[in-house]
């Protein structure tokens, strides 16, 4: 909700209220007319739907105009497996790969959400009438580095001292389709 408010403020500051509609609604049942949207932004949305993921892609296809753009982000299977190897445990690695789930914890409650390989996301988008135009991965390594620092496993001063070199490592791996926390997908609706 905080992100939506921030986005709404930016839209208002730019005077684009007549061009942008911000909704807080279920992604698998959008209160919009067929083919009424040119661009649909769903960052950190679809994978939380678990079994309703396909319904949400159908809804995105329904509301987008022909040639409209869908921009969505999904966690990356390879990155989740690597994170589990480094930070969690072998049971999590098996859960990631075999059941295509990753875990999040809020208080005492554990949640499991869907994971996809890049190929699986491409196949799902294709199945629902989208052509992938572009994709960009968000590096997993800065996230791992922060977690290790919070846990006291990496010395903050050493990380700060090596910041420039670490950034080069992260940038190089990113440029080689490295390990990603999430992948942002840009897809166009087919006719």
Task: Explain this structure.
Helices cover 44% and strands 27% of the residues. It contains 8 helices and 6 strands, in the order αβαβααββαβαααβ. The chain has helices at 2-14, 53-63, 77-87, 90-99, 118-127, 141-150, 156-161, 163-175; strands spanning 37-43, 64-75, 101-106, 109-114, 130-139, 180-189. It is globular and about 55 Å long. The mean pLDDT is 90.
Instruction: Point out poorly predicted stretches.
Output: none
SS elements, strand count: 6
Mean pLDDT: 90
Main beta sheet: strand number and arrangement?
Answer: 4 strands, mixed
Specify the number of helices: 8
The gist of it:
With 191 residues, this protein is α+β, with helices and mostly antiparallel strands. The protein has 8 helices and 6 strands.
List keywords for this structure.
191 residues, four-stranded mixed sheet, 6 strands, globular, alpha+beta, single chain
Which secondary structure elements does this structure contain, and how are they paired or packed?
Layout: H1 2-14, E1 37-43, H2 53-63, E2 64-75, H3 77-87, H4 90-99, E3 101-106, E4 109-114, H5 118-127, E5 130-139, H6 141-150, H7 156-161, H8 163-175, E6 180-189
Parallel strand pairs: 1-2
Antiparallel strand pairs: 2-6, 3-4, 5-6
